[in-house]
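ingest -> validate -> predict -> emit
validate: passed (alphabet ok, no gaps, 384 aa)
predict: started
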Amino acid sequence: MSSNVAKNPRTWVEISRIAMVSNVAALQALLEPTVSLCAFVKSFAYGHDISLTTKLLGESGVTHFGVDSLDEALAVRAVAPDAAIFIMGMVPAERFDEVVKHDCVQNIYDEEGLLAIIAAAVAKQKVALINIEIETGLNRLGVIERVLVDLLRTIKNNPRSVKLVGLSTHLSSAEDVAEQHYVYAQEDGLQRALELCASYELSVPFVHCANSAATIFAPRVHDTMVRVGIALYGLWPSAELRLAVQRGRAFELQPVLSWKTTVAQIKDVPAGGAIGYDRTFITNRAIRVAVLLVGYWDGYDRGLSNKGKVLIHGRPCAVLGRICMNMMMVDVSEIAQVKAGDIVTLLGREGIGMVTAETIAQELGTINYEVVTRINPLIPRLVV
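emit:
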């Protein structure tokens, strides 16, 4: 255990180097040599720690990274000084000078943004690197064809200040195996935009729409770069996609993240005893309860009250009562020799037992993405 965790033993997250390396290799094996893998490390690397994850991915040969914000881009740049960094979210125009200074590729989706980043480039006496996002059916960020024509004309007229290095769209339903026709329709829209770029004699090195699901399931839309997020971390975009893929071929992802805490106290509660706030759990027999040093402030969702399970000594233990802000209680009646200081697995594998992000998501009526990204970023992460 690292000194950082040793100083704060309440709860911590472990990041598996072996799992990360394995996932990168498995995903790279799906790509033609001409296709680049852009690793998405936005949102604190999906809860895994952006700096640690960028370093691990760099050691695995990844040279292209995707983020949502400028601050995330700067965190990546601090660890990967030579990497290509795509900022796919909104950056305030007054910070475009930083984007240009640090040679990041800024996603552009309107004329105001394009003119602002050109102005920043002129002031810095540099060339702004941009990506244009095309609207093809998600109706989020993106430009329609009429606006694209205006943007391309402006780019063509400012060759010393701006360079179009990326053209992209964002897929709506790639994780749904029944919606692949929509994936291909969106790809067709992206290709029409690429043809429009060619009509202005603008070549685009990075054309991209494939997310994790399309990278794994739809090689037709790999283009010249894929944007992989959730799969890097060993999590599947959907259960349906996993079944469809593994029905036809051997392809595995290894979960990278485990989440641990410790037992603070063991106590015996008699029959009829109330556990936790609002007395939502009343014992019908005498039981033993472990108090754990983690709660909803840490990201253990309050919706798991009276529903969640954790692992102690490799065996499942039911959550009892309401999840508190900084603590929670579990039933350890069937586990011998549990004591204060024992390690508890909230998410991950311990012995033959396993708690998955998918299991937690199912209990909460959400997706595995939310489970891992909501783990408090102040909790220490360490590479194991």
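Residues 17-248 form a domain with the TIM Barrel fold (CATH 3.20.20.10).
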